Cilia- and flagella-associated protein 58-like (Homarus americanus), 679 residues
Amino acid sequence: MTDTAMDAGSEDQPQQDEASVAVSTPQATDAEETVTVEELEEQLKASRAETAAAREVVTALTQQLATSVPRSQALMARKDLERRIDTLTRNLHTLVEDKSKTLEAQKEEREGIGRQLEEGKEEVTRLKKEVESRSRVLARVEASNKDTASVLKLKEEDIVRLQKESSLARRQYDQLEKTVHRQDQRRADVEDQVKNLRGHLKVAEKQAETEERQRLKVGRQAEKLKRERDVVHRTYVKTLGTVQKHAGLVHIREMERQNAEREQLEETTRMESRVVDLAAEIETQGREVQRALHTQAVTRAHLQQSNALVDALKTDNFTIGRQLRNVKTEKEEVLDESKKASYLVTKLQQNLNARDHDLQKITSEVLILEREHEQVREAERAARSVAQERQRAIQYAEGEKLGLTHVLHDQEAALKALQKDLEEERAGKGVVATQLARRNDEVKALRERVRLLEHVLHKGDKDYVNRLQDINTLTNEVTALRDERQVLSRHVKLVDSLKVELVRLQRELIASQNKRAVLEEEIVRREKAHRWTTLKASDPSTYDLLRKNQLLQKRLVAATQRLAASEGEAAHKEREVEELRRIVERSAAQHPDAAASRAHLINQLRTKDDQIKSVTAALNMAVLAQEEGEQDRRHLRDQLAATRRRLVKYLTAETAAETANGDEPTGGWWRGRRSAGGH
């Protein structure tokens, strides 16, 4: 095995030299990526070194227990390991040869791309020369074209100027037509407004006539009420006059009655005085008495007449009072009617005032309408004058239009002549234009070819740079793989020895499990025979030791199972890592643009490294647990041996006591079990 490892190391030395030479030429762009990959690989190496150290510890532990393994099996395991090492070295050689072939193919492709680039550069220089020569020809043609274009521009400017003048004349004519059309529209609008105003005037006149009729009706009613009021006033005055007359007559009659009474009283007083005076002078004044009697009769007649007059006056006064009462009632009725009439008169006056106000408004509106009518008439007159002026302007514009049409005809004739000249010149320049078009097409085609070649060159440069990067990455990976191969070639011996030791340990485990099963059967039988109970009662320390031995054996079995599972997981992870590396190599060989997917693969590698670290930690824990189990196992073996000795002593003492008593010894079962256990 050491010879094969030395041969592999001697074969890898020149390849390592080549890898070191290849690694010395990486570009700065891939430095970060290579560093990260190297760090990951170093971490993986460290994790593998830890696992190898753990396995060495396991082998060191298992070598102590490997005394019972036969030598023939060790030789067979060594041959198997040598065969595996040979297969691994062959696989590594094939991998190195494949990598070298891929590198040579990439170098050949790079040389082919360099040749194509050189040919493309030569063709580009040739095309540049052709372009320069044709650009000179084009410059000459462009100079001649500029001269002809300047002449054409002058003629086109003249044409444009004439077209502008004609367009200005047409615009002026259109503007005049628009103004005439607007004036016609305005005149039609004014006529419509006049018609509307006339209609409004007619309506206002009708409303004024109706208002006049209503005003006349109201005036007639007011005159009628005034007449009735005058009649009532006259009757009232007449009644007042009659009343005053009757009152005067009554007053006169009363005055006369009072005067008559006063005169009568005076006369009575006088007569009494006379009677008193004449009583003494009766005799002397007989005649005077007769005269007095006569005067008294006369006065009595007068008094009777006055009384009759007073009665007549009283009757007249009663009738007059009745008439006065009737007159008062009539007066009151007349006053009520006069109040009603005055109320109606006030209402009528208010209505008349409102109607007068409305009439004033209507008259003001009529005045306003008349003014507006006058304004409309003035506007009609102004519109007619403006229309006449516009008609004159239209006539003048039509005259100008005729002149402009003549000018346009002349200009169109001149334009036709110029167009004929231009067509002739264009026909003359058609050949030059076709030549220019051909030259332009050729120049465009050359430019497109130059662009395509530049694009191809740019793409080739990019591919060249990418290939260089891929070559650098591949060289780095090859060096890393060689280093891994060296490390693996160093640790292959340890792996094979560990596998052999694992097989041996598994056999020992099987043997120990068989022994444990036998012991358990013995314990069960002893318990059935009430030996365990006696042992627990007689020697509890040995009973506890046996129980601990059983528990520790179970723990040892569980630890070995965990170790086997962790080793299986580690092997599975190593296979996955190798598969990922193979995938990376294939992608790098087939797809040069696989640098984008490298980040993802690096992340996967990191995760796998973390998993490997976790597995190695679990393996270390399992190894520690196994060591603890080994120590507990040794301790338990020692304790078992001590307990067996005690049991043997106890049984021998018991058999001796039984033989001393003359009974049959019962220790044969233990000797038979011991002989079976020894076998």
